Batch of 4 targets.
Target 1
Amino acid sequence: DGGGEPITRAERFTWFAGVPVALIAGSMLLSSLGVIGSQGLRVDTFTDMGETASLRTNVSDECRASMIELHGQAAWDDAVAEQKAIDEAGGVEQSVRLSPERIVELRAEKAANAAPIGTGVATIMVMLGLVLALARGVSPSASPAPLLVGALGIVLGLLADILLIPATMSSGATWLILAIPMGLALYGCAHGAVRLAGNELIRVVFPP
């Protein structure tokens, strides 16, 4: 290793590959399960317009001939069939402005279905976790206490996001709740940064 401290193959694999891969893969898995995701409550003020045919069919004979020449007879026939199905279903649904009451209902639905952990918080915690893992890897014989404090902060931050921070909470209040967990996490990462800075290889790649 670049810092002069002996590192076993198992330690190298654990802290430089195993833990980082587990953090990233775990966050991706939780995202696919809906545990990590958007907590945004933005709602459009208009409904979506209904589906339309792939080509305009209500055109003059001259325009129809031009469209067939441009897109082909098959595409035109498909568009005619699509328009017929739309007409039989009642026509194209027009976009309309939502009432204030409906907007409130949709926001409440989004809040109820929001992911327990926000994407932003999860991304920050994964990055901090990677710093702690690499710091442990470059100096496995050093005291793990500061890094464990940082890891505790990450866990507390995620639990706070799940249990104490609803999707309706403002960003200011969110970070006020996360202040202590983030402080612990940054404390651990500060010690980790010092250990990383002492590694010769990392100093070559990221010079001070």
Note: Residues 146 and 190 are 9 Å apart (CA to CA).
Target 2
Amino acid sequence: MTHDGVGKYVSHLVKKSPHSTADISGILKEREVDVVINYLPVGSEMATKWYVEQVLDARCGLINCIPVFIAKEDFWRNRFEERGLPIVGDDIKSQVGATILHRVLTRCLKTGVLQ
């Protein structure tokens, strides 16, 4: 599913899948995911909101790294609070620095801290 469209510079490279959308909420539950990191491309507002719904349904926490306001919006924040789930972020890339954040996440993946 392509929620926010495909950019004009890559539209000739990207082919939309003919398959149905995966059951993201079910996958998160099955794998017992605690926290989801949203690192979609900047501008992915519709996709971010769709994934946040899946995250909430699966009862996972969220770290939002892009400038789509989720944590600061009452609508979203209240839904996480009602479920006792952590929510952090709204543009962590800009706040922390994308390069530093990328290096830390890469190191965590290499050492097995994150899977």
Note: Residues 24-111 form one domain.
Target 3
Amino acid sequence: MRVKQFHSGSSGNLYVVEAQSGGRLLIECGVRWAKLQEALDYDLSSIAGCLISHSHRDHCCSAPDLAKSGIDVYASPETLESVGLADHRRANLVMDKTLITRINGFQVLCFATSHDCEGSLGFVIREIETNEYLLFVTDSSHITQKFNIAFSIIMLECSYDKDILQERVDTGDINESLAKRLLTSHMEWRNTLRYLLDFCDLSHCREVHLLHLSGDNLDK
């Protein structure tokens, strides 16, 4: 299993999980269709499907284009409704912890996350051939689930530093309402670190990807 990170942040999100067999699974499609096609070298033939975490446009704006191109889209009912794909033949409902969905050479388990829109999800992805596991969580203030899995790849949001955020509120560089939204719907770096160290089995982990890093509210 291999991961490619093309875009991560409020301007757009696009990730690709590649199986040993050559199959590819998209996570998010929150960039313009032309930009998505360019990232994939204009080749959609090996794309098994696209997982969408939630309905904000920086995570899903190209979902209708993917569906029109014959790519299956996997998301919660709320997200599919929001992007106008609720009744589309390429739309696939994935529910919080109800089942494991098989997508070609992958198995996917979904779970609820804590964001400011209905139906937001995180994903546990297993590559069947290699039995490797990936954890993906973005746009969530915290994670309550603990998985008895030794993940090979972990992809977690690490959005901001609360001290830097407060300094910017105090100086008027960011308004208080936006700061409150960040505090309640995105993951602060200490929460990210705490989850990695206290809740994750890192014995087989070879990669940790930090997602959605703020350009202004985090000391990278």
Note: The mean pLDDT is 92.
Target 4
Amino acid sequence: MLNSTLDISGHQTIHHAISEEMNTAIYITKEIEKPKWIISDDLINVKHYFFLIYFDEDSQLLFIHSSIKTPQFYDSLIERFAIGKYGRISKYQLNKVLADIKNPEFFNIGMQNRSANSGESYRIVAGPNAETSIRKSHGKNYANGHVFMKGLSDGDNVTVGYSSGSKVWSNAYQRIPDYIKWCQSLAKKIVSDKVVKTNTAFDDLPIGVVVDQFPLQVHGATWNGMTFNEFPLINEVNEDEIVQTNQLLDFEIIIDNENSSLDELCIVLVHEDLSYKLSYNFTDHFKLIEPLECDLFIEVNGNQIPLIDYFNDNPFQFYLDNFATVSNHEYFAPPDEKDFQFDSSRIVQIDWVTSNTDIKKEFYKNQQDKVDNANKNSIHETLNERLMQNGHSILIYDHGTGEVADFIAFHEYDDRVEINLYHVKGSGGVAPGDRVNDVYEVCMQAVKSQAWTCNKQTFRRKILDRVCNHDEKFLIGDSNLFKTVMDSGKRIEFFFTIVQPGISQADFSPKLSYILAAADDYITNNGYQSMIALGS
């Protein structure tokens, strides 16, 4: 629809031309503004804007050149000019614009942290030959973010860059026909089967791949990084009236594996007596499975966003077998197993038999359940007794939906406070051994809990929210002592401990070694000490 009008608030269109031959439309607009610091009309600012819309028929790609470069404005242009079903091209496809460029030299490289729980979400490397600063190990935790480089194409010097939002650019000034030719050359690369190989360290940064199903089983999910930053509310609305409000981050994301497949996931959001069922696939993304009596909205900075729209714009990060991930609807393959091995001697051995512990029983719902189980201790009870004897200044039992960890132990020193998050999972059998699924689950819990430890303020806020009106959660200390410790000005150090009796030094397979090492790598690369494992 190249003949569409371009109406921009505050702009006057001073030139509009269409070339049917080139499938191109151009617009030049003028904006007149009076500075806010003057009352009279004696001084005004006049700005001119240029917009070019080109549709490449062979590739079915729409190219937009715009003087206004916000994502929202690009979206408004696409809605005006595109017909039928459309979407941004993936980073994997966009990376093909680097194909066939020889002697590459990178000026600027962005690395996107693949962990939604990290305090560092993005890292930029800049300077001559920036690619030499990338290490092979970066590929385990970072993905390709953006790039700007130069090289030779057909003997000519070229520059090219791309970033998120399907943006690509070159540091050049060209006439419109030459610009169209440049777009055509990019289109051919983007839709081709070319594999980009720069033969530099840049190749070690993985790029998300668009897939139509999950290549591996999904074990867990966590919130999008933006969700952790925004602390949004979820509102139930009936006839334009908010009838219930909760913190979205208080909900637990549960993958219903019995009703899921590689084609589509069944996801349940659970908080206390509330539950919402969603489906997710790579075509339609998120949908509500069951109709509700009310509408669901996510509230961010006072704005009400329909729940499904919010999740489609801020999708969960899914964790798959071997710590492969799906992030922003794109698949990142698991790291090579040879890169991860966990030393079995690091497993702290616990004598569960002497402590009369049923290693299959994580916790009891009531005392009668324990009586019916020959009064054997649950893992929680045994760990509780162990922690109560370790001289902690504060000990919190936070087990439950939306937990930070099962146990949170504080040890205060003169110059620092050590906070240890204990995550517990019962064993799948009576004897310790190869409990792959159990270990996956407890490692996922440890990895996901980093969302609350990225800074002191986030952790403080989350804990106070969890213990509000629940003083019984404090096994040692209370809310006032917690506030005093957190506000003491001492350095805070977080530790992560998994408790899984199925892990044994004597029976430790390469698969378990890989899972533990991958989880440990997630944690240490986010700036924490090595993960601690309590086993048998």
Note: The mean pLDDT is 89.
